[in-house]
Amino acid sequence: MRGTATLQRLTACGRQVMSRFTAGCRRLSGSKPGRRQLRLGLVILTVVALVAVLVPVIAYRTLFAAVGGEAVVLSVPSGASTRAVANLLAEANVIRSPLALRAWIRLRGLDGQLRAGEYRFDPAHDAFAVLDRLIRGKVVEYPFTIPEGLTVAQIAVLLEQKGFAAAQKFREAARQTYNYSFLPANKDLREPLEGYLYPDTYRYVKGMTERQLVDMMLRRMAEALRPLEAPAAAQGFTLHQLVTLASIVEKETAVADELPLVASVFRNRLRIDMKLDSCATLNYLLDKPRPVITMQDLEIVSPYNTYKHNGLPPGPIGSPGLAALKAALEPAETKYFYFVSRNDGTHAFSVTFEEHNRWKLVYQSPNP
pLDDT digits over 284-301, tens only? Predict the structure, then answer.
């Protein structure tokens, strides 16, 4: 809003008028005929000029100036009238005069343009700054981050912990239909949107629904996948296959430099139709992931069990980040077919099964 600037211009104009009248008064006071009448006229004009300067200043300070005090967080309900909003602001000690604000809104033709939402008003905000926020919808935003590799269920819990969504409602929203071409039509998926809620930093606005949160993450995934679609197709991969592979790569290592190496192992195995043997796909099937997979886990009956089924599982097992997506698309050029954890977050990679077993003896054998 330009209310403050307008009042400042009026004040400056009034000062200029007063200055000119004062100068004229000095020149005419020494003139010969009608000197008394001229002096009287100049006095009146000087008073008018003073009024022109002082009235805007007094009006601003009395009706529109910042109230001061502490910052106020206030929710403006949807559908509230201008009168109701002005009264709400005055009751919260955000503005000085609700009547003056309503008059200014009507004068400027801004009725019906105040937006609902949660706002934060600083002590330095005058009525015009407050109105500017309400018209532009500058509501309070709460940043939050979805880490790479989380499942839909884990994202739901995280949002509930932050107070942004109910976990169950979020999961229900994640099972609804959304109009994005990259989403799979496979009905055998454990979660229809698993892997597609893009890990990133977002901003929550009070009043957002669970569906809006899901849609916000899907829009971000659409942006991430757009430049990868053509290169993936050139390699014979659908976007769903790419996201699925990337989700496994994301889960298998937390070390960014290892992502292309892990991806190379799985791409090499896929090339010769060798089972992926990914522990991450088994952990996806367990209620609580295990650091070490048991022999019983290997027998789980599921298309997600890559120890029993060749190729990729039906769908992603978590949400891959951009680095994992790029690694799945452009893996390192290696002859690796195996890797084993060094128990420090990194892995030892092998070309042959014999070499792999040697590394297992080094890193996975129990201490004597």
Answer: 999 888 888 899 999 999
| ∠ Cα 246 251 253 (to 5°) | 100
Work out the mean pLDDT of the chain and round it to a whole number.
Answer: 88
Q: Are 208 and 141 in contact (CB under 8 A)?
A: no
Tokens of 286: 């367990």
- Amino acid identity of residue 249, one-letter, is V
Give the side-chain half-sphere CA count within 13 A for 263.
27
All residues at 6 or more sequence positions from 48 whose CB lies less than 8 Å from its CB, including other chains: none
Cα–Cα dist 174/155, whole Å: 11
- pLDDT class for 22, splitting at 50, 70, 90? low
How far apart are alpha carbons 187 and 196 in whole angstroms? 15
Question: Distance from first CA to last CA of the chain, Å, rounded?
Answer: 75
Q: How many other β-carbons are positioned within 10 Å of the β-carbon of residue 85?
A: 23
- Count other C-beta atoms under 10 Å from residue 219's C-beta: 12
Query: Amino acid letter at 278?
Result: S
DSSP-assigned letters across all residues of 220-257:
HHHHHHGGGHHHHHHTT--HHHHHHHHHHHHHH---GG
- Sign, CA dihedral 280-285-289-294, equals negative
DSSP characters for 49-66? Answer: HHHHHHHHHHHIIIIIS-
Could you give phi then psi for residue 211, rounded to 5 degrees?
Answer: -65, -40
Residues 6+ apart with CB under 8 A from 24: 42
Question: What pLDDT, in 10s, does the model give residues 95-148?
Answer: 989 999 999 999 999 998 999 999 999 999 999 999 999 999 999 999 999 999
Residue 179 has a pLDDT of 95
1 or 206, greater pLDDT: 206
Identity at 107, one-letter amino acid code = L
Closest of 193, 206, 186 to residue 155, by C-alpha: 193
